[in-house]
Design goal:
- This protein starts with a strand and ends with a strand.
- It is built from 4 helices and 8 strands; from the N terminus they run E-H-H-E-E-E-H-E-H-E-E-E.
- Strands 1, 2, 3, 4, 5, 6, 7 and 8 form an 8-stranded mixed beta sheet that branches.
- By secondary structure, the chain is of the alpha+beta class.
- 30% of the residues lie in helices and 34% in strands.
- Strand 2 and strand 3 form a beta hairpin.
Length: 145
C-alpha cells in the first residue's frame, strides 16, 4: 500500500473516484457539496493498493497562522479496518510538518471521533451538521510531539 501526493490530473481523478464512492454513493452527500471550490488549490493524497488501484483519499488545505485543514479522508468500504486511515493520516501529518504547519484542524464525522482521538486529535466543538451528517471540530498541535 502506498500513499501518493497528487501531482497530475489522473491522481486528482483517482481521489475524486474514491470520494464519490464513499461520500456521494455510500453516505448520500450531494456531488456539488462533495466536490467544491477548495479542490483546485488543495493538496490531494491518494492511497493505492498493490495493483495500483485507488482505495483511499484525503486532502489538505493550508490556512493562516501556520495551520492546516485536513478534509475528505475516506477509505473504500471493502478496505476499512486495515489501518489505511492511520497510514493516510500519518502521511498528511508528515506533509504538514515539512511545510512548517504548527497545528492541524479537521471536522470529523461524529462516528469517526474515536479514530482521530487515537491519533492525538482533540474535540474543540459541540456537534454540528454538515451535509446532514453530525460532525465535531478537532485539532492536533504538531508542536507537542
Amino acid at each position: 500500500m502506498t500513499v501518493k501526493i497528487v501531482t497530475d490530473e489522473q491522481g486528482r481523478e483517482d481521489a475524486y473516484t474514491v470520494r464519490k464512492k464513499v461520500f456521494v454513493e455510500e453516505q448520500g452527500v450531494p456531488l456539488n457539496l462533495e466536490l467544491d471550490e477548495y479542490d483546485q488549490d488543495a493538496t490531494h493524497f491518494v492511497v493505492y493498493d498493490e495493483e495500483n488501484h485507488p482505495i483511499g483519499a484525503g486532502r489538505m488545505r493550508g490556512l493562516v497562522n501556520a495551520h492546516g485543514k485536513i478534509e475528505r479522508i475516506c477509505i473504500l468500504a471493502e478496505h476499512r479496518g486495515k489501518h489505511i486511515g492511520k497510514l493516510i493520516m500519518n502521511t498528511l501529518e508528515e506533509h504538514a510538518r515539512k511545510h512548517s504547519m504548527k497545528k492541524l484542524l479537521l471536522n470529523a464525522q461524529s462516528h469517526a471521533v474515536p479514530f482521530y482521538e487515537k491519533l492525538g486529535y482533540v474535540v474543540t466543538s459541540p456537534e454540528f451538521m454538515d451535509a446532514d451528517i453530525p460532525h465535531r471540530a478537532m485539532e492536533k498541535n504538531l508542536l507537542d510531539e
